[in-house]
Design brief:
alpha/beta; TIM Barrel; 2 domains; about 45% helix
């Protein structure tokens, strides 16, 4: 009797193990639970090209990132190649004349230039930046308020099948209107993430970007090639993904 009980218990245990193995196999084959998308976020990091200091931190970011690279600097080509290898989107960060008195990059486009000069600068700058999918303005408050010069830049970008991202450094920018007129792909910055190079401030700006994406369906934030900015993003982005936000390249939302 005792032997029969032992055999029965062994059979029951074997059966339970068999059922557990089947359930485990079925569970593994089930598709992961889909979190509803609360909003799309595109993050742009400006001013790459001065150095290579933050590439390692950038490599920690495993979601789409759009990287705006300044042309014709010592590190422009190398940083473009490295960021492209990380799977990020590359755009030309085109130096344009501001109204403020800042130190200008070499060959900054100014409002007194003719069409030939602007074309030559664009041609040289795009040759400097490998893999460029679009163009954004570096500074440029004076140029983006100037219809003639902005139209020349946007028309040239359209010819090359590039989109234009307006960093929106002046509320009087004419770029959106011009882009609609010539039917080119266009996007505009919503929030600057790091006007202060302070982690607490940057975190607050990321929250504002998240809230805007939830409200409008999408939002574009611009930060800069700075250690604090990239560290905050490398920590914040995974949490935002888990909570239902989708990160995209600017090319995916430019209209």
């Amino acid at each position: 009797m005792k032997r029969k009980l032992t055999i029965a218990l062994a059979l029951i245990l074997s059966l339970l193990i068999f059922i557990a193995l089947i359930l485990t196999s079925v569970y593994k084959k089930l598709p992961p639970k889909q979190v509803p998308v609360k909003g799309k976020i595109a993050i742009v990091i400006d001013d790459w090209g001065y150095h290579l200091n933050n590439l390692e931190i950038a490599s920690r970011i495993k979601q789409p990132l759009t990287c705006a690279i300044l042309p014709n600097l010592n590190n422009s080509r190398r940083v473009a190649q490295n960021l492209h290898n990380l799977g990020f989107e590359i755009i030309l960060h085109l130096p344009m004349e501001p109204k403020e008195k800042y130190r200008l990059e070499k060959n900054t486009i100014t409002t007194d230039m003719n069409a030939g000069q602007i074309h030559n600068i664009l041609d040289r700058d795009l040759n400097s930046i490998l893999f460029a999918r679009g163009i954004s303005n570096h500074m440029g408050s004076r140029v983006t308020e100037d219809s003639r010069v902005s139209a020349l830049i946007l028309s040239e970008a359209k010819k090359r099948k590039l989109y234009f991202l307006d960093s929106f450094v002046t509320s009087k920018s004419v770029c959106s209107l011009l882009a609609k007129r010539i039917r080119m792909r266009f996007a505009k910055r919503d929030i600057f993430l790091d006007n202060l190079d302070d982690p607490a401030y940057i975190k607050d700006q990321v929250i504002k970007l998240r809230d805007l994406a939830k409200k409008n369906g999408l939002a574009i934030g611009i930060g800069h090639d700075r250690r604090n900015t990239l560290i905050v993003l490398s920590e914040a982005i995974p949490q935002l993904v888990k909570s239902g936000y989708k990160f995209v390249f600017v090319s995916e939302i430019a209209k």
